[in-house]
Structures are given as C-alpha cells and as structure tokens.
Amino acid sequence: MEQLTGQVWLGDVQEVPQMLAEGVTWFADLRTDAGPPIDAANTERFPLERSAPDGDGTLAWAAHCVKMRVDQGEVVGICGHGQKDAAEALGLAYLMAMGYSLSGAQRFWRKRFPGMTFPLPLWYAEDARRRLQASKRVHSLRTVAGLSVHTVHCPGPGDPLVLLHGAYGSWTHWVNNLESLSQFADVWAMDLPGFGESDDWPGEFDSPKYVQVVASAIRDMVGKPVVLAGYSFGAFIAAALALAAPAQVQSLILVSLVGETGDPAAHRRLEERHFSHNPSWHYRLGVVRDNLAALHLYRPEAADERAVRLTYLNILHARLGPRELRRGSPRMAMADMLRGLRGIPVMMCWGRHDPMPQPSVQAWAQTCEMLLPDAEMRIIDEASHWCQYERPHEITAVIREFMGSGRGANAESAAPHE
User: Fold this and answer.
1) Separation CA 209–CA 215 (nearest Å)
2) FRET pair for 270, CA 20 to 30 Å: which of 4, 52, 218, 338?
3) Are 349 and 402 in contact (CB under 8 A)?
4) pLDDT > 70 fraction of the chain, expressed in percent and rounded
5) Which of 366, 370, 365, 367 is nearest to 342 (CA)?
6) Residue 360 main-chain phi, psi, to 5 deg
7) pLDDT tens-digit readout, 282-339
8) Percent of the chain with pLDDT over 90
9) Are residues 255 and 230 in contact, defined by beta-carbon separation less than 8 angstroms?
10) For residue 210, how many other CB atoms are within 10 A of its CB?
11) What is the pLDDT of residue 97?
12) Is the bond preceding 119 in cis, omega lying within 30 degrees of 0?
C-alpha cells in the first residue's frame, strides 16, 4: 500500500482494512471479476484489464471520478485484486487529470516512489490524458436536497437542453450525442439519484419526491426553463417533471418512451439473459452483449466493445432497479400523463425496431398521437431502443429541427411515424 497524495492511496483489495484505518472514505475498485464487494465504505467499480488499451475510456473516466471525489473532500483508495499495477496506472492517470503533463506526472511519481518502475506502458495513461483533454465536458458534483448529484455540462449556444438517462443507466446513455447537440444548444446531462456517480436514493423509491429532487437539480444546474429530453425511464421522469413543474420546461423531448396499447394478448414477451452467481468478467460482458443485441440495438455492429463496457459499468453502478422503480411509482395511467402534457411543445421518437413498446412501435406511436395530437412523432430507421447511441446523427437532426423554427417538417434522416 502506498500513499500517492494526501487524499489518495494505492494498493490491493486485501489492503482495504489498512486503507480504512488511514481514513479512506471512497474506493475505486478495479477488479474485473465479480468478487465480493467492498462493504466497508462507498465503492465504485471500474473493471480495468491490464492487457488492453483504454479503448472504452474506463481509465480516463475512473481518473475523472477520483478527481471529483478528492475535490469533494473524500479520501480515496484505489485497489484491485492482484492488480497493483492497474491501481498505479490509475494513480498516474489521476495526476494527469489534476493537470500534470505526462513528463510532470513521471517526475512526481519518481520523487514520490524512488526506484519504482511504471507498471503499465506509459501510452496507456497517456491515452487517458488525451481523452481528458479532448473532451469539452465539464463534470461536477452538486448537493441537492442533501444528495450529491453528478452533472455533465457541454457548453454551447442556444437554449439549455437537459438530458435524462434510462434505467440501469447514467449520463453515458447520451455519450454519442453531447458534443453534436452542443453545436446548437447549451447541453446538460446528469446521473439521476441512485445511478452512476450520484448518491443513493435514501429509503424506498418515491416517484413524486424523486421528480422534485430532479427538478431541484435542474434549477440548480441551469437556473431557467429548459428543453427537457428523457430516454426510456428518463422520458417518464421528464414527462412527470413537466406535469409537476411546468414553469421549468420550455418543451419536452421523449425518446423511446415505453407504453402499451391494444389487446394484451397481442403483446410480446421480452426475454433477456441474467448474470449467474459470481460469473467471470468475460461471461458478464457476453450477457450484456447478448441483451444489447436482443433488446436495445438493432444493427449487430452497434453492440460494439464500447457499448458493452459502458452498459456493464452502468449496471455495476445502478442501485435503483426496475422493481424498486415500479414499486415506488404511482399508478397513473400513461394515457392520463400524456393528456396532461397538452399545451407543452412535445416531440416523441423511437427506433423503428424497438421491441419494448407493445404491441409495436407503430401502434404505440399512433396511440400517443391520439392522446397528444399536437406533438411531433418521429421513427428512426435502422434503430432499436437505444436509438440515440445507435443513430446519433439522426437523433441530433430531429432534436435540432424541433428546437429550431422548422416544427413539423421531416428531418432528412428520419421518417414520420407510419
């Protein structure tokens, strides 16, 4: 176990008791296996493979998170199991997230640990540094109603656009869209409470209180009415927020809103794989890849390594699951919710091959149009449920059109619903 800085310790997972004795309050766990969790303190998982480059950005993102926690006053422990070199690589990347150049980080390292060799090729940490510098995203943690909420800001011209993610998700549900949307909007994303880098939701999930906290977070972030976009579960939260706090919402974008219509006998059963007890890292990634291909992404090539690993990290960091969300949500019919949105400018869009609306996307879109006759409806070709990841240019186009002056016109890459 080594002390990198006054607030950062490096070591093995077996050294957790010693780290706790030194005052560690938050752990970055780099293990790739599904070993027992570190229960003694707040922990987040960043599975880091020694043999692979930072192709999915895990090292860069972990360095970002360590810096955010240090800035919040936490004492951080970075550890793995038999992965001391990975912990040291993250330590090096953290120094660069603090603003050190690669050579400056090397000098700091050699002064701090004389004689210690660098554990991984330096280009591994250098790639993380390039990712950190290339991004225009500004990450921060804000305290709202006693909860720490992680927000991401991509500054841009135009109206503020706030993006809400789906279940088992984080701001990364919009990772392919932030920069392109910021060309014409001031873009904000957030990890909802119970997901990603935000705090756990205290006690049992309560949908009305949850919406109030999200509304407070948006007021704190932006301070004026916003264009509010939600994906899947985030679309439900966005619609509920527009009903509860209409003065905060200029207009509403509902992406992949799930609903049911027609004869229940015609609805399809959705099948997905689940993790078995304590499976291997590669087995878990295989389960995630299969579920993405079956339910979330239409084109096989869209379920790439980046999508798989982002999704796996989101699952690891999610503390609110679908059962808790359903149990704590009022039994308000979706039809009543949509009728309540009349008078608010609304756009709704889905991937043409999204299996979640029942009995089909087309049938559900037609029902939504009857309930919201003034809303704009778009169906994106060659896309499934996570359509903004799979077809980012098309989603950007319809959002740009909706936020601009050409309401009601077809975007070049999207077709009206059929």
Assistant:
1) 10
2) 338
3) no
4) 85
5) 370
6) -160, 165
7) 788 899 999 999 999 999 999 988 899 889 889 988 888 877 777 756 655 788 889 9
8) 46
9) yes
10) 21
11) 80
12) no
At 59, list the tokens: 């090292």
On whether the CB atoms of residues 351 and 390 are closer than 8 A, the answer is yes
Q: What is the 3-state secondary structure of the chain? A: CEEEECCEEEEEHHHHHHHHHCCCCEEEECCCCCCCCCCCCEEEECCCCCCCCCCCCHHHHHHHHHHHHHHCCCCEEEEECCCHHHHHHHHHHHHHHCCCCHHHHHHHHHHHCCCCCCCCCHHHHHHHHHHHHHCCCEEEEEEECCEEEEEEEECCCCCEEEEECCCCCCHHHHCCCHHHHCCCCEEEEECCCCCCCCCCCCCCCCHHHHHHHHHHHHHHHHCCCEEEEEECHHHHHHHHHHHHCHHHEEEEEEECCCCECCCHHHCCCCCCCCCCCCCCHHHHHHHHHHHHHHHHCCCHHHCCHHHHHHHHHHHHHCCCCHHHHHHCCCCCCHHHHHHHCCCCCEEEEEECCCCCCECCHHHHHHHHHHHCCCCEEEEECCCCCCHHHHCHHHHHHHHHHHHCCCCCCCCCCCEECC
pLDDT of residue 117: 62
Tell how strand 2-5 and strand 249-255 pair up: unpaired
What superfamily would CATH give domain 138-268+318-416?
Alpha/Beta hydrolase fold, catalytic domain (3.40.50.1820)
Name the segment(s) of the chain with CATH classification 3.40.50.1820.
138-268+318-416
pLDDT in tens, 131-184: 665 567 888 888 988 898 999 999 999 999 999 999 999 999 999 999 999 999
Q: Which two tokens stand for residue 228?
A: 């509010």
- pLDDT in the model for residue 135: 67
CA atoms within a 13 Å half-sphere pointing along the CA-CB vector of 5:
18
Structure tokens at 88: 């040291």
> Worst-scoring range by mean pLDDT, 52-56, 183-187, 205-209, 330-334?
52-56
CATH of 2-134 among 3.40.630.30, 3.40.50.300, 3.90.190.10, 3.30.70.260:
3.90.190.10
| Amino acid found at 232 | S
Range in 51-55, 63-67, 110-114, 406-410 the model is least confident about: 406-410
Domain span(s) for CATH 3.90.190.10 in the chain: 2-134
